[in-house]
Input
Amino acid sequence: MTTHTTRMLILGSGPAGLSAAIYGARAGMNPIVVQGVQPGGQLTTTTDVENYPGFRDVVQGPWLMEEMQAQAEHVGTRMVWDTITGVDLSRRPFRLTGDSGDVYEGEVLVIATGAQARWLGLESEEALKGKGVSACATCDGFFFRGKRVAVIGGGNTAVEEALYLTNHSPHVTLIHRRDTLRAERILQERLHAHPGITVLWNKAVAGFVDGGGAAGLVAIDLHDTVTGERSRIDVEGGFVAIGHHPATELFRGHLELDGDGYMAVEPGSTRTSVPGVFACGDVADKVYRQAVTAAGTGCMAALDAERFLAHAAFESDRAAAAEPAGEKENAEASW
Ligand code: FAD
Ligand code: NAP
Output
């Protein structure tokens, strides 16, 4: 068992964690990044990335994350292959335990553990991921220009994705398992007013249909949740929008979470309910969920952390200066 100590401990090696590391290293906080089970994060599970600024041509998700990691290491970040399984945030330095048995101590902690899309759990869905089936319209909608697409779900995300997809697609079908939407009223009004969107009520996905060869998704088989009747719609893109799981279980009871289980942060900052702990990226964001927003809040977390440490050092110097000389000598002797 090894104890790793650092000024700045970062959990997660996606765009949020690595951006925090780049800024943290350059600010002299010698960050350690604990990578978790998905080194590089969600973008390593996709191919074409066309909306991350700085690249004229499409780049590949895994390559982009390798570059981000290399940049973080180049400026002084230490990457560790481990997953955090235990936390003690009751005092600083914070003390976390890895799956390996190693202990990690950080004067500040940045949580960038991300979120995972929920999937329907069908075999055909797994087989066609990246070949017509996606969980992110903002990421992949552009690849379906001029094609028919469907969105599955009835919450804010599904309705927003359906509306967004009308920018690219001549026809969007929203498939929902009930006859009422969970989405906010204003979004529902926009959805129903849009001539390019059809809603199929009381329909569940029975399977995604593979056209074979390079075709990918060509149709979705449905069953009616009330009558049981079977039907099929022809689409080339299927967007599953049935919610996300933020990776926050580890922190339940230690940090404040919002009603959907996301990390609660002070608006306009990355500060969590425990001073010295910061959260960034998808783990604290249920609205934007993009690589560039994750990277942006990663930068914010490093800046917030640096200010926190500077303030803590200033307060401790001031307290030491205010102590009577005799007490200071005694304190130093006992230290
Ligand atoms: P993540 O990338 O989710 O990274 C989380 C990290 O935390 C991982 O490294 C994981 O191993 C680690 N972790 C989790 N738990 C622990 C733990 N207990 N201990 C230590 N580490 C832990 N966005 C775009 O902008 N453009 C796109 O084209 C695009 N395409 C996408 C395609 C797909 C298929 C998917 C799934 C997402 C796509 N996204 C895209 C969204 C984008 O990937 C996310 O918004 C972004 O990755 C979020 O970054 P993050 O750093 O917050 O978290
Ligand atoms: P959500 O509100 O949990 O909605 C998920 C939807 O998917 C529900 O309609 C649900 O159906 C459906 N669903 C769940 N499991 C399913 C399954 N197995 N098969 C078929 N359908 C299934 O998730 P979300 O829309 O991602 O939103 C999450 C949170 O983020 C919410 O608090 C939301 O308000 C917020 N959000 C806000 C904004 C914004 O403010 N602009 C944007 C996006 C998200 P049922 O309705 O039948 O349960």
User: Anything to note?
Assistant: Helices lie at 15-26, 61-74, 123-128, 137-140, 156-165, 185-193, 291-322, 325-334. The two ends are 26 Å apart (CA to CA).
